[in-house]
Design goal:
It holds the Pfam family NPHP3_N. The protein is of the alpha/beta class and 305 residues long. The chain is built from 15 helices and 6 strands.
């Protein structure tokens, strides 16, 4: 697991479950993700605003049993591997480069399928065996991007081992290199019937252009009910809010709906504002809380800082 993945919040209880449902039944516009897992190919693009919950959704999907079940059907008895990587420009620089991406994915796969190492690193294997037999420490610090690309290409081309890959790559907009290059790279790799990618990024023009014909969803359009559930559950943890719900249910409901609508699909914003409300409720009355416009400005100030 990458450092970035460890820092991402776990999805709030009962949120994001809709991604495995039929979008037609929900009367919402998104490409059927469940169907793509089971029988699709190429790339599935999860996109959305900053703070809309893309990384949380990617972590949710990557670790969900349903994902594994559907991909097992897609793999048709092959050896399924589902490595993930989360780009992160705010952390160590090494979390935002293509070198770190390929090193992480190669390690993730080869640590579980060590029999593939000679095929993926044919020029180095004998040397490593010799060094290891003489108790010499092997250094991998000199691996260039070119060498990593060759190794990764050899990995995804291992048809003799009946391998099937579904890679989950979060935060393409956090990549420190050229965004068109990295998006094109994934597109080229996904041309194999044995390899596919679930990618996430902000809805930037370069990604819209390259992924416009791919299965996709725009997250902020689909999380109204999730955000409402989150707000209701979090506020109900306050005794003062519960008192308001009993004595003035109309005002309590209005507060919830106002927060949900002002969030505009941005989970991070509503998380910050709800925390502020709960803090205010601990020290005073509901009437002492800042107005919603004040809270909205507060949330936007933090997001912009």
């Amino acid at each position: 697991m990458s450092i970035r993945q460890e820092t991402i919040s776990v999805a709030h209880q009962n949120t994001f479950e809709w991604i495995f449902c039929d979008p037609v039944a929900h009367q919402k516009l998104w490409s059927n993700f469940d169907q793509w897992l089971e029988s699709g190919n190429g790339i599935y693009w999860i996109n959305g605003k900053a703070g809309s919950g893309k990384s949380t959704l990617m972590k949710f999907v990557l670790n969900h049993d349903r994902t594994q079940e559907k991909l097992d059907i897609w793999s048709q008895g092959g050896k399924l591997l589902t490595p993930g990587f989360f780009f992160w420009r705010s952390g160590d620089r090494d979390q935002a480069t293509q070198e770190s991406l390929l090193r992480s994915l190669l390690y993730d796969v080869l640590e579980r399928r060590r029999e593939l190492i000679p095929a993926v690193f044919p020029d180095d294997w004998e040397k490593w065996c010799f060094l290891a037999s003489n108790n010499v420490l092997i250094s991998f610090s000199d691996w260039t991007l070119a060498k990593l690309k060759v190794a990764f290409q050899l990995l995804v081309n291992q048809t003799s081992h009946q391998l099937r890959f579904c890679f989950f790559i979060d935060g393409l907009d956090e990549y420190s290199g050229d965004h068109e290059d990295i998006a094109t790279y994934f597109s080229e790799l996904s041309s194999s019937e044995f390899v596919k990618f679930c990618l996430s990024s902000r809805t930037w023009p370069i990604f819209r252009e390259l992924f416009q014909n791919r299965p996709q969803l725009r997250l902020q359009d689909l999380t109204f009910e999730d955000i409402q559930l989150y707000v209701e559950n979090r506020l109900s943890s306050s005794p003062r809010m519960l008192h308001l719900e009993r004595t003035d249910p109309e005002s309590a409901a209005q507060l919830v709906q106002s927060l949900v609508h002002k969030a505009c699909g941005v989970f991070l914003w509503v998380n910050l504002v709800v925390k502020s409300i709960l803090k205010g409720l601990q020290g005073g009355k509901v009437s002492d809380l800042p107005t919603l416009p004040d809270l909205a400005r507060y949330g936007m100030d933090i997001l912009g800082s």
